[in-house]
Design a protein that fits this description.
Layout (H helix, E strand, L loop, with lengths): L1 E4 L1 E2 L8 E7 L4 E6 L4 E7 L5 E8 L4 E6 L5 E5 L2 E5 L5 E6 L12 E8 L5 E7 L7 E6 L4 E9 L2 E6 L5 E6 L4 E8 L4 E10 L6 E7 L5 E6 L3 E5 L5 E6 L5 E7 L5 E6 L6 H6 L7 E3 L19 E2 L2
Parallel strand pairs: 1-22, 14-26
Antiparallel strand pairs: 2-25, 3-4, 4-5, 5-6, 7-8, 8-9, 9-10, 11-12, 12-13, 13-14, 15-16, 16-17, 17-18, 19-20, 20-21, 21-22, 23-24, 24-25
Length: 309
């Protein structure tokens, strides 16, 4: 089994870094700071060094980002979807019925999201208090309609597809499950869900994930300070150690798409934990010797979105 240690990158720490994506059209790394409501962008040098280019405010909270084919970025923000223009101007596109609200009111927020191979935007939600069953997975389709794909989730998290698009992987960090679904790319419909991996609190729980070009899964384990690589059958193949317990997500970036970038979080950490983990919230990198895909782009409209009942 392969074992690696990730090293800290230059950009300053986030409060809760998440959702790294390689934006191939702009040749830059995207990631979000959820409670700060920020999209952050960085260049990746030939030696794997990261240089932050910009940060844009996209909402009260921003859970995830996807490049848009027509330009700019699509955000899973607040309790719905927002657009962020190239000049950094953000506008709300749709607030989802039954989602949103403030943390103190027991509301929900958008969490992880990603585009499928056809360009739909799949986005999950969670309650601020992480109460069981309050999360859901939505699909913003190519015609601008939004439908519910799954409900009864707790912390809808990492999303990824097999290289041929026929399998959708989804993490629910509440019960610590990583599931696989048959996926119809033509219709954007998951079916026949089955648990691929189950994690206990002592080993961390599956958070953000990516799928490499060989079809293997890389999942950040929140609470364990690791990113692990698994075969499509669930066999452990590699472990990347990170000196921060709250590893939140990962992606492959750079011109060769061979640089593994890991986001981390300082959310909820005690003063003692912060002192023991001074790099919490930073980005980390490693080169595991494999490549992964760039972020799929959103190919639907930005205006006239509507939620199906």
């Amino acid at each position: 089994m392969q074992r690696l240690t990730a090293t800290a990158a230059a950009p300053p720490a986030a409060a809760h870094g998440e959702g790294p994506r390689w934006d191939a059209a702009r040749a830059e790394l995207l990631w979000v700071d959820i409670p700060a409501g920020l999209l952050r962008r960085a260049a990746v040098g030939p030696d794997g060094d990261l240089t932050e280019r910009a940060a844009h405010h996209g909402g009260d909270t921003v859970g995830a980002v996807a490049p848009v084919a027509a330009g700019g970025w699509l955000l899973a923000a607040g309790g719905g979807f927002s657009a962020l223009a190239e000049d950094g101007a953000a506008r709300v596109l749709l607030e989802l019925a039954g989602e949103g609200g403030s943390e103190g009111s027991g509301g929900t927020r958008m969490n992880d999201a990603a585009c499928d191979p056809a360009g739909r935007f799949l986005a999950g939600t969670m309650a601020f208090d992480q109460r069981p069953g309050a999360g859901a997975l939505y699909c913003l389709d190519l015609d601008g309609t939004v439908r519910t794909l799954l409900d009864g989730l707790t912390v809808s998290n990492g999303l990824g597809w097999s290289p041929d698009g026929s399998t959708l992987y989804l993490a629910d960090s509440g019960p610590g499950l990583l599931s696989a679904f048959d996926y119809d790319v033509a219709t954007g419909t998951p079916a026949r869900g089955r648990v691929l991996l189950e994690f206990g609190d002592d080993a961390g729980v599956a958070d953000g994930l990516t799928v490499d070009d060989d079809g293997c899964l890389w999942t950040a384990l929140w609470g364990a300070g690791q990113v692990r690589r698994y075969s499509p059958e669930g066999d452990l193949l590699a472990v990347v150690e990170v000196p921060v317990a709250q590893t939140s997500a990962c992606c492959f970036a750079g011109a060769g798409r061979d640089l593994l970038v890991v986001t981390t979080s300082a959310e909820g950490m005690s003063a003692a934990d912060r002192a023991a983990q001074p790099l919490a919230g930073r980005l980390f990198t490693a080169r595991p010797g494999v490549t992964g895909p760039a972020a799929a782009v959103y190919r639907g409209p930005l205006d006239g979105l509507r939620q199906l009942t």
